[in-house]
Amino acid sequence: MKAILYIYASLCLLLAISPVTSLFAAPGTAVVAARDVSFYTAVTRFLQEHVQEGQLNYKALQKDQGQLQRLVQQLAVYNLENAPASERKAFYLNAYNLLVLHQVLAHYPLKSVKDVPGFFDERQFRVAGEMLTLNQLEKQKLMAPYRDARVHFALVCAARSCPPLLNEAYAPGKVEEQLEAQTKRALQDDGFIKVQPKGKKVLVSELFKWYREDFLRHAPSVPAYINRYRSHPLPAGYTLGYYPYNWALNDTGR
């Protein structure tokens, strides 16, 4: 009897501390526990293997899609029930970027995601149990609840003019630090923010035109927002303009 009680107590303790999300999942169904760091570790491992200076070698990735397919399967069943805001934010950032890569490979070889009808607003994916487009992921799961303009420097739409893709997962415990670092990285990049002393102009990404209201929630003007993240502020009196967005695929394998 003592042995039985001991086993029962041990099982109770194990279940209390394990990150198990469901004891009754259908056979063969992968269930990713909320706050399970193994998912974020796997995303980091994948990105570090395939991201080169913020770009992707899709040709090489196409030959080794298994790792990405497994991550996409995990995205579909990830359990966000009772998850804190930091976990939800990190999860949806990773989900967006992984699903962009997944969809690019489905149509590769590809010159631009613009060549795929409905890339952002028609094709749906299962994400944490919901069917969502990429636009819904961005607007409903990230911008609406968090109203954080830094998200625009973390989501990568597989275009040359996108901010560089981070080569590690956004993680619940440090997602705010990562967003801050990504924003500084983008806004201090001479290729992203083009200061032209000769004409006294500053040319910036069209992201600042498309999502202007998002940035104005944090600063009185677009230049003021940019200056929050620059070591050397934009020169006063310079005219603000926008350079054309380059939608060519962010592919290093060509």
Automatic annotation (TrEMBL):
Keyword Signal recorded: yes
Domain of life: Bacteria
Organism from which the protein derives: Pontibacter saemangeumensis
Keywords of the record: Signal
Name of this protein: DUF547 domain-containing protein
A Pfam cross-reference name: DUF547
Signal peptide: 1-25
Highest classification ranks of the organism: Bacteria, Pseudomonadati, Bacteroidota, Cytophagia, Cytophagales
Residues of the DUF547 domain: 82-184
